[in-house]
Amino acid sequence: MKTPTSPFPEVPYYLGLYPVVDSLEWVRRLLQAGVKTLQLRIKNLPDAEVEPAIIDAIALGREYQARLFINDYWRLAVKHQAYGIHLGQEDLDTTDLLAIHAAGLRLGVSTHDDAELARAVSVRPSYIALGHIFPTQTKEMPSAPQGLEELARHIKQLNGAFPTVAIGGISLERVQSVMACGVGSVAVVSAITKAHDWRAATEELLQLCPYRDDNHAQR
Ligand SMILES: Cc1ncc(COP(=O)(O)OP(=O)(O)O)c(N)n1
Ligand SMILES: Cc1ncsc1CCOP(=O)(O)O
Ligand SMILES: [Mg+2]
Fold first, then answer.
1. Rounded to the nearest 10 degrees, how much is the dihedral formed by the CA atoms of 27, 31, 36, 40?
2. Which of 17, 83, 139, 176 maximizes the CB count within 10 A of its CB?
């Protein structure tokens, strides 16, 4: 893993509500609903198949002045100048971080434990994701949920040096307890996409997890 000699571009500490969705349709709906930070997470398709959705999602993100992160497809994200990219720990071994950095894209990195946190810190990404916090039905996880105590411990350990995003099993009912740990953002999938009324759920989540543009309030 070749690491850039300077940090990845900064993002606000309080990125706010951060829905992670798997289609252009969801990207459009959520932007129209006022979401300002989101991720397009399409899994395991050939680049050529996913490229049209990535191009359109990036264009929509720009139109709504939102922070749209692309999961996994870093080459396409660089090619089409996305706002940012989200990568997992395994991705770090196979990704050209120097190319992402040179292109000026923001980078978010997943972490699940102390060792992964240390590795993420060494990359100096734009934000660090911490999870999974609670059991989740959305993704098969090899590790146990971290829980709130571990989340709070990791956030304290980072001491405001990086914006943080909590992910995994975060329901509407759990958001406040997650925010109380000092995290800057809450990433959700099913709390929105499986909600009985996704608009109402998004509205409530936006209120509970506000975006703040005062860069690095924690630093
Ligand atoms: C905000 C956020 N946090 C964590 C993840 C998980 O990313 P990754 O470990 O790369 O796993 P996949 O999402 O690719 O299955 C995420 N996507 N977003
Ligand atoms: C992509 C991902 N990475 C860690 S947990 C997760 C899924 C989160 O989905 P949900 O909010 O439905 O638990
Ligand atoms: Mg990934």
1. 0
2. 17
CA distance 183 to 127: 11
Mean pLDDT of 106-125: 98
What lines the ligand 2 site, CB under 6 Å?
20, 131-132, 136, 138-139, 167-170, 188-191
| Closest residue to atom 11 of ligand 1, CA basis | 88
| 2 alpha carbon, distance to own chain's centre | 22
Complex confidence, ipTM = 0.99
What is the bridge-based pairing of β-strands 67-71 and 37-40? parallel
Ligand 1 atom with least separation from CA of 87: 10
Q: Who's near 52: CB < 8 A, 6+ residues apart? A: none
* pTM (global) more than 0.90: yes
HEC profile of 94-159: HCCHHHHHHCCCEEEEEECCHHHHHHHHHHCCCEEEEECCCCCCCCCCCCCCCHHHHHHHHHHHHC
Classify residue 140 by burial, with Cβ atoms within 10 Å: 0-12, 13-18, 19+. exposed
Q: Considering only CA atoms, which of 96, 95, 30, 83 is closest in space to residue 54? A: 83
Nearest ligand 1 atom, CA 127: 1
pLDDT category at 163 given cuts 50, 70, 90 is very high
